[in-house]
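Acetyl-CoA acetyltransferase, Nonomuraea soli. Tokens?
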Amino acid sequence: MSVAVVGAAESELGVTGKTIMELQTQAITGALADAGLSLADVDGLATAGVSRFSATQVADYLGIRPAWTDSTFAGGSAFEMYVARAAQAIEAGQCTTVLISYGSNQRSARSRSLAGVLEPHTPETEFESPYGPLYPISYYAMAAQRYLHAHGAKREDLAEVAVAAREWALLNPRAYRYEAGPLTVDDVLASPMVSSPLTVADCCLVTDGGGAIILTSLERARDLRRPPVVVLGYGEATTNTGMASAGDLLEPGSIMSGRRAYAMAGLGPQDVDVAQLYDSFTITVLLTLEGLGFCGPGEAGDFVRRRALPYNTNGGGLSYCHPGMYGLLLLVEAVRQLRGECGPRQVDGAQVALAHGTGGILSTHATVLLGVDR
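Tokens:
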């Protein structure tokens, strides 16, 4: 049995003044309407970000009693993981229609709290925390320093990622930086340094926001309102919690998650028309492009400079929206691109889209390949 995405929507974005559940409800209502379904059709639920009991809270709030749930907390990659779990559950007959949702009001609440308490006597508490790193930027800055040193790259290579994101955001009225105007490499380099070599402009936004997608069997999807977007393949990898156990910082888990997704889909990087890549920081994108095989080690800066692949076409976490965990909005944009709904930012003839989530400090990685129904 094949599985497809049949609905996708965002909530309000930016500074909303809404609660987490209000944002989730906006996105869920929008995705159901997009699919031509109702809450009565939903018998599977995957969600995160409310609490340790996210699935039960959201189900209770919506007044549904799903046959299958998942609230795995894996950071920004969780939602790509949910696509895999949802597809497996539908194929196994555990449920027929899965809602994946997320919402965060971290900008309005003035909060960046996403992680739990660190346990004592772990590599993180013994070898990292005593030095006062800023979580998570100091860790990504460490990866960036290693990248620049090992490949002879320059800060300009990082800056190109932020510049490209802004170019797309200027085509998206829903982007937080839609009216901010163009960004230049010099602007990024002149932005205040936060954790060397990463400046403010190398860092993702802090916004409210949420999203939702709906999945069901492809057979059923063909009778619904919107053109189905088929789940072609998926893969994941978990590598480390802290940097003390990270191994080679230039070999991210996207290498393995991508290989697994490509193998399942029978595709390769050359088959991808548009990509949505988690861009918590500019270095995240360079490492992910290389890990997913779009270019070789040390080549991502030039790859981005040449605009060799349309990616993060909504403006990404750097210029569109980043509500704590951004992975679900990657999927929303991928679906819209394959349905040809993106207006001035539409990638012509897009047949295959890739969405890749990264969680923690390059800790969890999940890749999903989606395609038009042929």
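The chain has one domain: 3-110+205-372.
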